[in-house]
Amino acid sequence: MSALHRTLSRRWFEEVWNDRRTEAIDELMSPDGIGHMESGDFEGPGPFKEIRDQFLAAFPDLRIEIEDVVADGDDVVVRWRASGTHTGDGFGFEPSRRPVSFRGMTWHRYKDGVLVEGWDGWNQDGLFRSLEPGPAGVGDPEVVRRRSELAGRIREIRAEVLGESGGPEMARRLGLPARTWYNYETGVTVPAEVLLGFLEETGVEPHWLFSGEGPRYRRTPEAAGPSPIELLRIGLEKLESEDRDAERDDPDSAPLT
């Protein structure tokens, strides 16, 4: 069976990714298949198609090269290298025209000839940061640290409210593609309207979300202090101010033309 499963994993990368055969996803993946990514889990071919479509929208020329394959029974591990050019607007980023190249490993598990579970391991956060405006996505370390901490608290609350695999459900409630929501959980700047929706859905205390201090959840709607919207506005203004200060201090941060 190992030889068959090696062939199926090679088909996954060649047909699903390189040949852009959407129907191959349904052919190779179980309807109940589960995927585990650095940004969260998903279930079924539908959410995976959304993720793949976002990648291909951002990198229309994306190609994945298989560097090695190891198989043992129902399990297959693939070491791969991806490359492309950021000329599309997938993930909510303006095209930077930057070439990208990154390596990763994928573990596939098969049952009855179909993919039932998979694990991806690669530097997804680093890729998304490289797409942000500025010289190769490099920003002020303090701003990057605070965004990373905010993303970590967003993930923490989402997991508490909807479970470890609740990313797609949160995306549905906020009217977002699952891939876009996972971007926000990895440190991509979250739009104000999305943060407001997240506050409404979870009841998280805005002060805790931005600072990590105080109670996590709002106890009563009449609690004293600034309103959630006011606290959110304060937090966003602080982040924007730090970004502007970082740009003024960096002579190389002029936008690409």
Task: Describe the protein in words.
By secondary structure, this protein is α+β, with helices and mostly antiparallel strands. It folds into two domains: 2-130, Nuclear Transport Factor 2, Chain: A (Roll), CATH 3.10.450; 135-249, 434 Repressor (Amino-terminal Domain). Helices cover 47% and strands 22% of the residues. It contains ten helices and six strands, in the order ααββαββββααααααα. Strand 5 and strand 6 (114-122) form a beta hairpin. The longest helix has 22 residues, at 141-162. Residues 220-224 and 253-257 have low confidence and may be disordered.
Span between N and C termini?
Answer: 53 Å
Kindly report the CATH topology of the largest domain. Answer: Nuclear Transport Factor 2, Chain: A
Number of strands: 6
Instruction: Assign the CATH architecture of the largest domain.
Output: Roll
Structural class: alpha+beta
CA-based shape: globular
Question: What would the average pLDDT be, to the nearest integer?
Answer: 82
The helix-strand sequence is: HHEEHEEEEHHHHHHH
